[in-house]
Amino acid sequence: MGLLGLLKKKEAEGEQKRKFTRVFYATDIHGSQLAYRKLLNAPSGYDTELIILGGDVTGKFLIPVITAPDGSKRATVHGQKKEIKTEQDMQELINTLGVLGYYHVEMTEAEFKAAEKDEKIVNNIFHREQYKRLTEWIKMADERYQGTNIKMYVTGGNDDDVEPLKALDDNKSEHVIPCESTHVKIDEIHTMVSLGISNETPWHTPREYTEEIVAKRIEETVKGIDDFTNVIFNFHAPPFGQGLDMCPELDTTKDPPAPVMHGGEQVFKPAGSTAVLEAIQKYQPLLLLTGHIHESRGTAKIGRTFCINPGSEYGEGALRGAIVNIGDGKIVSWQITSG
Fold this sequence. Notes:
Layout: H1 3-18, E1 21-26, H2 33-40, H3 42-46, E2 50-53, E3 62-67, E4 73-77, E5 80-84, H4 87-100, E6 103-108, H5 109-117, H6 119-144, E7 151-154, H7 162-170, E8 176-178, E9 183-185, E10 191-195, E11 198-199, E12 208-209, H8 211-222, E13 231-235, E14 246-248, E15 250-251, E16 258-259, E17 261-262, E18 265-266, E19 268-270, H9 274-283, E20 287-289, E21 298-302, E22 305-309, E23 320-327, E24 330-338
Parallel strand pairs: 1-2, 2-7, 3-6, 7-8, 10-13, 11-12, 13-20, 20-22
Antiparallel strand pairs: 1-23, 3-4, 4-5, 9-10, 14-19, 15-16, 17-18, 21-22, 23-24
Helix pairs in contact: 5-6, 6-7, 8-9
């Protein structure tokens, strides 16, 4: 190849680079410290300045570390009692809980007994710790990304209560941008709209609603958009029955709900949102980024809309994600990642 050929090749490569935006998307990390630290490494690992963190960012469990009158400490994790005798024991417990996405709070026997009798006390502590960790995560991102153009767009999910999510608005950040129920331009031509709520579940989570309300919220969120050619839907709930919402069927007559078994095997069923499906069919956005159903890692096509759910294994500290290269009116390429 001559010099002219090399120059044309370089020019073509440069043009190709300008033709798409690379997005790294992950969701449902549920407070996992390890999964979040891996997410912070995504820009260097996946060569992008654009991260989208979907819903369910806060953890689900609060573990009390109880100090007895004699000064000894204990905690119960997954039904197993742990005696905490040294600072090293305490740090190992904190690290273990961090991987799982759990929170801990130190309290006396008297404080623990009072909390057992008053759900309001527990909720206040839980929300405080969720808010605290989310605030710490924002500061970590600002420190890591200082002097760069990296942006992390964050939305809540159905498991995220309103109170802790206020940390996203209370902590103004150059790099961490709350985006729920808003339109954001992620580049010159692509607009993203985000919605973190879900349809109803057997778990009665903080932000789940009837399909009618989900549909109404979607309409409010997309209001003002006339052309969906280059629009991204960042919707926590997946569309119903498209292969991205298969999860174990549960017997809700039991408390807690238990998996339904048939022939010795779990029965699976779709649990996504009909409102989300109808919105995609109606508006045909370029891309749907979704999650919520951890087991349904995969992709689907609904008309022209490419849909992707990277799944979640946050409890093992794994970061499941997806790289999507988006061009003008098209998906250039995509890859589901594990790390």
